[in-house]
Design a protein that fits this description.
Elements (H helix, E strand, L loop, with lengths): L30 H10 L2 H13 L3 E5 L1 H5 L4 E4 L4 E5 L4 H16 L6 H21 L2 H16 L6 H18 L3
Parallel strand pairs: 1-3
Antiparallel strand pairs: 2-3
Helix pairs in contact: 1-2, 1-4, 2-4, 4-5, 4-6, 5-6, 5-7
The structure holds zinc ion.
The site of zinc ion has 4 residues, from helix 4 and helix 5.
Length: about 180
């Protein structure tokens, strides 16, 4: 397997040969497939996500993240090493979500609600790098989906702390963790 392999190249293995590679050339032209193209055009932040997903052998599927994990856009399940992207998402939104969920895959799993909230904030902060670097229509799509939330998580704003506290309280309520 090398980068000149002509038989289907895509980081999630949806290219024709079914193997995960960092080349996005043959990704399907779907919201999931084009998300890899969006990441490939998003500088170092984007290529780090591609490399990390491939190196980690992370499965990426499009489905119903609301049903899978009560999450609006996406989630990562460490028990199956799988990122689920919600079917309503655009390619640009998926690129941000892939960055967010890939970050979760690298985090120590939270055992306290406070840690859970901090992990959530770290995933948003990491995906802001991709969000800011997306190009053209991908950036427009990501802004349409996420601008309100990124604005509400800007460093130094009261909203950022409000969101963090809300995540901590949700974690306590949902999972009963201390
Ligand atoms: Zn998250």
């Amino acid at each position: 397997m090398n980068f000149s392999d002509p038989f289907g190249l895509c980081p999630d293995g949806t290219g024709k040969d079914g193997k995960q590679t960092t080349n996005v050339k043959d990704c399907p032209k779907t919201a999931q497939g084009n998300a890899w193209r969006a990441l490939a055009g998003a500088g170092k932040s984007g290529s780090e996500v591609i490399k990390g997903v491939v190196a980690g052998g992370i499965n990426v599927v499009t489905g119903n993240s609301q049903n899978t994990c009560q999450s609006q856009n996406s989630c990562f399940d460490p028990s199956t090493n799988t990122i689920t992207l919600d079917a309503h998402n655009t390619a640009g939104a998926n690129a941000v979500s892939l960055s967010h969920e890939y970050t979760h895959s690298t985090e120590v799993q939270a055992t306290t609600a406070t840690q859970w909230g901090k992990n959530e904030l770290a995933a948003w902060d990491a995906s802001r790098g991709v969000y800011n670097k997306l190009q053209g229509a991908y950036r427009t799509e990501a802004v349409a989906e996420f601008s309100v939330r990124f604005n509400a998580l800007a460093v130094g704003t009261p909203d950022r702390m409000l969101n963090l506290n809300r995540w901590i309280q949700n974690a306590r309520r949902r999972w009963g963790i201390p």
